[in-house]
Design a protein that fits this description.
There is one protein chain. The chain is mainly beta. Helices cover 9% and strands 55% of the residues. The strands form 3 sheets. It has a 45-stranded mixed β-sheet that branches. A 3-stranded antiparallel β-sheet has the order 13-16-17. Strands 35-36 form a two-stranded antiparallel sheet. β31 (458-468) and β32 form a beta hairpin. It is rod-shaped, with a radius of gyration of 53 Å.
Amino acid sequence: IMISGATVNWPTIFHAKLSPKTLHLDYTLALNKQLIDISAIDLGMEGFRIKGSFQIQDYLSKDPRIVAKASTPSTFRYTDVRYYVPYGLIDSDTADYIENKITSGIFKLDTGVLDGRVSQIAHMEIGQNYNTLMIRGTVEKGIVSYGPKAPEFNDLKGIIELKGKNFNLVGMTGNFGTSPFFLDGSITEYNTFNPADYPIKMDISPRTPEMAWLAKMAGIQKLEYSNSSTLRLVGSGHYSAYRLNGDWDLKQAAYNLPGYVSKPLSMPHTLKFSTVIGKESTKVTSVNYNLQPLIITGSGLIGYGDKPYLGFDLQTNRFAMSETVPILSMWQKYKPRGTVQAHIRGGGDPEDLSAMDYHGTVDLTRLSFQPDEHLKQISGISGSITFKGNSLETSTIATRYGSSMITMKVAIKSLKNPEGDITLSSPQLYLNDINLAEGNPGANVRRFNASGTLKKDSITFKSVSGLINSSNFNLSGVYLTGRTPQATLFVTSTKLDLDELRMFSSPAQKTGNQQGPGVDVKLTLNVEAGHFGKVAFSKLNAAAQQEKGTIYLQNLTAGMFGGTLTAKGRIAPGGERGDRYDLTLDISRADAEKLFTALDISREVTGTLALHGDLTARGNTLLDIKKSALGNIRLNMNNGTLRKFNSLAKVFSILNVSQLLRFRLPDMATGGMPYSSIKGSFSVKEGIVDTRDLFISSNAINISIVGTADIVKEELNLTIGAQPLQTVDKIVNRIPIVGWLLTGKEKDLLTAYFEAKGKWSDTQVSAIPVKSMGKGILNIFIRAFELPVRLFTDTGEVILGQ
């Protein structure tokens, strides 16, 4: 029979109209009252040919028996015959799978047998009616697709059979995407009332693209996978809740989830799991992740709906941490040591692990790590970390940082936006452990306590307190991290030595062979009482700023030597040459004796002092500062006493030797010389103090001093004018005297002039004639003593009364 242009429409059996271009049928038929016997059939159309036989027994009865056998002498393409599959004779789930999941393949029907009554064939789901149909064939280059988002099963090859109530895949090989696999599987109960089951045994070697797809489904898109490994899968159940167990040998695989795990090639590693795969999620009923020395067991849930979800309940063995442990790869750079054990439950969007909720604990035993190459090792950490939702807190942990024993506790409010509260305490915190006081390894802070908040880019100090030698302090403020660190600090103290405070200056940061600046700091300082060198002070308030290593003193006030000090200026680091000081200072109502004693200048002056100075100096010691000092000072002192001044004592001695006067001059060796005021200005350069207008007023005598004092060598080079203020006893015509005497208009004022040279302790003093003085110095004395110029008309000698 040759048929052209025919159309068959049988929707209960075929899901499309069948319209072959030509249909060629060769057959041999015998007919009797009980049997229609087509003993040989050869049916052919484009792309397909089938041979077999067909019998209808008892065809005149209400329930005839059909016996059909078929095979294909050659292969055929599924795409050519897909519409000829009798879906109406196959279980609906199986039919749906064949029609919608199988997209391509080259098939061959080896054996096909249909043997049963029409009633049996029409209801294969009843009893053992499923035995009426048996099909066995082969497939090559088959393709099964589960949608555009999933990798295809391709290059499928093996045996396909419908036998009894099972649809079997026997000895199947192929690829899942690019990943090769071997599969034996079935669809059971395909045409019964019972739910279908899909048992499989599958060995697959997952490769990079398929692992990327799987990682994306699980919400861990950052997973990097390479090389190959063997995953053995065993599955069963209906596809709506499919049970799939895996045994995965990952030794020959390498993978990396940045920050969490980094497993290198050839490291022994196995993963065993049991899952239930549903339409919306996969339940991981058990998992065993063995990556020695770490073993993780637990369960989980992977949701792959519109919004991905990852939930888990995991626990680890007690494992030893080291920089070679592949888990928690973010910690490897910190060179960890010690043991860890964890039990954590969590859930949330896996695309942002930091935003998930976590519950559970991590136990740490003798853990140590190196937080930074510039910091000391933290060691001996024993305690626990407790997760609560998106936050965590630690137990009180005792540890060692460098040489310092520290007790600490940490609480992180949000893992999504990390912000941690930390408290620290130490009986003795060594400053070189925190990169301070590096030249003094024994320097430490006793009874150290600190509390603060750590954020991604800042540290807030709520309170940092302790004792340094005799000093105490309490610090608060903010430290901004980054490429240019900055700090704003507030320091209060009841007792503080400022020299000790300088140990907190940040050291220069080394960059190659050069040194870069340390931390920029804004400092506010409030101190009840303290010292700076030998200088005692009280009620100190200061605002300072350190930029690129230079300290700018913006405002300082303090009680000092019974008076008040105000100052501003800057202190710049100078390395081996010493710091450079540029200061403007004012002292009012200070005790002169205490001030000069503190400066190692003199202990021979009392009184109330006011001073203004603009000074520049450089050095690491007071001597260096004296040598390099440069600037100007204005001095005003009142109501004090000059005691044991070697130079003045010798001046008074010379005046007494003249025996011209009946009054008593002050005795510098006992009570000293009281004065009402001392005024003068000084210039300072390279350790030399120069004055042109120092004037001492007292009831007994006025003294004017011009010259220099070397405060380093302690040497004087002075010209001194003395003016006793008592009345002359008598008038003489000519009086021999060492030096020169000048009389005033009322003949009651005398002045004498002297030179003082040499060491402070042994100054050589001699009277000098007026004519030996230069005009400049003489004019200074004329102005100082308010003397009439006419008295100097004869510079050779002056005769009283003439």
